[in-house]
Amino acid sequence: MSHYFRAVAIDYDSTLTESGPPDLRVVDAIAAFRRTRGRVLLVTGRILNELRQVWPAVESAVDAIVAENGAVIWLPGAGARTVAQPVPAELADALIARGVPLARGNVLLASDTAWDAVAQEQIGRLGLEVQLVHNRSALMLLPSGVSKGTGLLEALDDLGISRHSTVAVGDAENDHSLLETCEIGVAVANAVPSLQVHADVVLREPDGAGVCSLLQGAILAGSVRVQPKRWQIRIGTAPDGSPVTLPGSQANLLITGGAATGKSHLAGLVIERLAAMGYSAWVIDPEGDHVGLGTLRDVVVRAIPPSPAGAPRDAPPSPSVTTVFDLSAQPPEERAGCCSRLLAAAARARKAAAVPHWVVFDEAHLVPDAFSILQGTAERPPTGVCLVTYHPGDLHGETFDGIDYVLTLREWTAELIDRSGAQPFVPDARRSAHVRHWHKYLTAVLPHHQRFFFRSAEGLTGASAANIPEFHHELERCEPAVLLHHAPAHDFSRWIELVLQDPELASEFRAIEERIAGGAEADVEPARRDLLAGIERRYREPVGAAPG
Prior knowledge:
The structure is a single chain. By secondary structure, the protein is α/β, with parallel strands linked by helices. It folds into 4 domains: about 1-80 and about 150-225, HAD superfamily/HAD-like (Rossmann fold); about 85-145, Hypothetical Protein Ta0175, Chain: A, domain 2 (Alpha-Beta Complex), CATH 3.90.1070; about 230-425, Rossmann fold (3-Layer(aba) Sandwich); about 440-540, no CATH class. The chain contains 20 helices and 25 strands. The protein has an 11-stranded mixed sheet with strand order 14-13-23-22-21-15-20-19-16-18-17, covered by helices on one side. A hairpin with a 2-residue loop joins strand 8 and strand 9 (about 140-145).
């Protein structure tokens, strides 16, 4: 089994079996898949007790059952629970009074499509919010919003499995939501035409034979990649106005360019878009460039303090949470080792749990064999790898054999390169703040030639700043004459842009400098407050007073 996929969600009637219980070959294929640590979820419109009567061994053959078209969840040891309110009894009574044959589940009412018009009439007469769902000739009446897709998400959450680690297979109209919920949606050969049109893969064989071919085939083995259009991430706009996208899974990406060209900004955009779609990522962040992503939902920042180990112990990754590992507090000489340990931990986590779906490694030249470490003992090269570096020539040669897309940046112009050619584009804006090397400038001491030396019209004041806290401290206490001296020459913004390499804060400072340069001494104090607030906002931690 591929290290990417961990579960298969299978419809029952006309998918797993043509009628009655599945045949022995199908049952054996399911058991074999489960022995590889894969999970099998049965997702059906049937009422649970009816399913048990047709297939008495069902509860020992699968890992979970989603019954009543998503309204009932069964798990081993936990039993069954409903995840929706039952269809109102008054509707059942009204339909029975009209002669409609009904089966009642814990939530749904089941009949056949010949009674569609009567059901619609009674729902309208009673003023109820109840939906009609078809499964070939079968009719189900369910609370609004309940589907196989919503029920499957509940069951996957119970099992700790991501939708992006799951393949779904079905045959009928009520399987649309099932297929669209999962990373890959598969239709058996006997599926209704509308499902075949929307499926990512259509099998050559019908029902149980098709399921066997899927369980034993190339997709789940990882030798064939399927990248659905619904799971594409947008990164920018091409010159003709069309969106530029990348696959959300099973691809490898290299982002490269010179210093201050926007590599980390673009990497952060990729991470934002992946997180918004529910993919799990580990972001290895040696310089603290990506801590601003922690403001987003389902993104957590984990600061790794200096220690002999230099990396956290293995822990089960969340199937939908992105973790940014901030290594900026590590001594520079220890960061490469810490990165290597995190890469190895990611490889083990993927083997055990199929997540994280992506590993994003900024400053990837620190570990030239990162690609090999992520492969570990797997037979096939890894996917879901994004390497970010200003020096791709340092990476080991086999890395480039596995790269599918290259994003190159030159002074904030970008180009996407793949096997079909090159395409220029303008990167999209980000939701989260990109703070370049924030810990580096909060805690480190810059060399003498990179420090800011404060002056007035009379000359040097004797004060200098070797990092952000010292700069903030001196801006807070210096005489107005110092600000009036530096502002006309844009000294503050130039230092921030050239030394701190933070063009966004530099732009903010430049506008404030213009106000000071064009005003009088009375205008200095409001501008000073804005300069200090800009630093505090940008670097996200109380700067505090510098020592001495």
